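Reference record
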Amino acid sequence: TLSDIGKGGIGNPNPLAATIPESVYICFQMTFAIITPALIAGAFAERMKFSAMLWFIGLWAIFVYAPIAHWVWGPDGIF
């Protein structure tokens, strides 16, 4: 859980994948967190300022990706 960050890690990110290192799990999640808004940004490439696109990607990752990823992958998630 994220409460373990102060103790040096995030703990077991998913009980179904107990043998996967935390760094690999984080990279896996960040891959999807970056690829999806990049595909969306392709629709409006060169039509908006770069700083606005960075804001969009950051807000999208926090308010859309994080809750949905928790629902899907979290042990107490929706499934």
